[in-house]
Design goal:
Layout lengths: L2 E4 L6 E3 L1 H8 L6 H9 L3 H7 L5 H10 L8 H9 L2 E3 L3 H11 L1 E6 L3 H10 L8 E4 H4 L6 H11 L6 E5 L2 H9 L3 E4 L3 H7 L1
Parallel strand pairs: 1-4, 1-6, 4-5, 6-7
Antiparallel strand pairs: 2-3
Helix pairs in contact: 1-2, 1-5
């Protein structure tokens, strides 16, 4: 093993989609949950994260939603990006991992989230490669995305370890022959390596 495939959300930064939902929902009682259900999970969000829907088209849908406050697309974009916080121990862990391994970012994300994270979280800038769902059109729930990593890199599966917070993504990596660690916290993850 010489390459770590690092997820971003809930591995390097925390993700709070409900803060976005509370910011845009008209009804603060049931509205945030409805906005979450419509735009922060499921098929529509997956289309954004795999590049089938562009961010402006996505925000326009939200702006037209009767459950959402009337606001300019730029304001929706700002709320969409204002959902991240640094994850405790991530900066030091990335530094330690970078001393021993090549670090490749592998994330299910959209172009606006990724650009925002890259600009605001320097720990992402030192990665050797980036495999992003909106660029290659596949989510990590698909074994095919891990086959894509192997084929495009010319490397064998035993050279990789995936660190990801979702069990389903770890299972897909395992089906492609890539070892995975389901992330809980950095001390435990570092100990498992």
């Amino acid at each position: 093993m010489s390459i770590i495939l690092l997820d971003i959300g809930n591995v390097l930064v925390t993700v709070d989609f409900m803060s976005f939902c509370r910011a845009v929902a008209i009804d603060l009682n049931a509205g945030p949950e409805e906005i979450f259900r419509r735009y922060c999970t499921g098929e529509l969000k997956e289309k954004l994260e795999t590049g089938w829907i562009g961010p402006l088209e996505y925000f326009a849908m939200i702006a037209r939603d009767l459950q959402a406050k009337a606001m300019p697309l730029q304001e929706i974009k700002q709320h969409w990006q204002d959902i991240f916080e640094p994850l405790e121990g991530a900066v030091e862990a990335v530094r330690l991992l970078g001393e021993k391994y090549s670090l490749w970012i592998m994330s299910d994300t959209d172009p606006l989230h990724f650009t925002f994270l890259l600009n605001n979280y320097p720990l992402l800038r030192g990665a050797d490669r980036y495999y992003l769902s909106f660029e290659h059109g596949m989510m990590k729930t698909s074994v095919g995305v891990f086959t894509h990593v192997l084929d495009s890199s010319g490397r064998s599966a035993d050279e990789f370890v995936l660190i990801d917070d979702k069990a389903v993504n770890c299972a897909s990596a395992s089906q492609a022959g890539i070892r995975s660690i389901q992330f809980q916290n950095w001390p435990d993850t570092l100990a498992l390596l």
